[in-house]
Amino acid sequence: MQEFFQLVVSGIATGGIFASLALALVLIYNAMGLVNFAQGEMAMFATFVAYELIIRGVSFWIAFPVTLVLAFGGGIAIQRIVIRPVERAPVLTLVIITLGLATTINGLAGFLFGYVPASFPSPFSVRTIDVLGVYVGYQDLGVIAVTAVVLLAVYLLLEHTTVGLTLRAAAFHPEASRLLGVHVSWMLALGWGLASAVGAVSGILVAPVLLLDPDMMQSIIIYAFAAAVLGGIESPLGAVVGGLVVGVTINLAGAYIPHVGGDLQLAVGLAIIIAVLILKPNGLFGRAAVRRV
User: Fold this and answer.
1) Residue 124: CB partners within 8 Å, gap ≥ 6?
2) At what angle are helices 2-32 and 220-231 packed, to 10 degrees?
3) Domain ranges of the chain
4) Global pTM?
5) Long-range contact set of residues 166-169: C-beta below 8 Å, sequence gap at least 24
6) Which range is least confidently modeled, 85-89, 213-217, 246-250, 262-266?
């Protein structure tokens, strides 16, 4: 039982990382009805930026917010330069563009930073603490705390600020928002910037667990897709809940299901995606589509 609870706590920490990247996917989907396949690569590039700051002597807790600000600016720049000229194009065109963007960012990261894996320093101690007989690592507790703060900040921004409410209005009712004087295109750019910053959190927090290299987010993005689909691709709350469920599920599956571990855990994430699409296509918190006959 002790091992079970330790796996659950570790899974919650991992799920928090998935949740932040899934939330980034949901933000872009709500803004444009588009799944951004470059989200993982954008997070990876931001993590390399944080790494470069840290190895040059900048404290992690300074490099972290600086990187989020740079990621925010980078997301806005991508929307204005790459996405805005084709934002009214068919969805398939936009999907192909995001796939091309992912490949471009991956190659640029390899060109600038190299493909030799690097060890990303963790700000948290490797020690553990005894909580009611369950030994929990400071690393897991730190990841849970940081992701909780970031996700709470995003929630407060979207639900309790004028900017957040305007952003949501521009995403769901663009034409009406334009009539009210809202600069919808800039609101979309703000959504891309916010998604880029939130996604960067997942990269920075997972990098100490994985080795830092241009391909490090390619498995994480699959789990994030699973979390977003499970929770409901339109629901920010669903992204958070889905991330936690996926994190705990793959942890328990790796420990208790024979031959599931390492790369085979990806199969669990893919199985979750397939099961949700078959059994409940709208996800746990998604809105059911209503069609008039």
Assistant:
1) 137, 138, 139, 141, 142, 143, 208
2) 80
3) 2-215
4) 0.90
5) 167/31, 167/191, 167/194, 168/30
6) 262-266
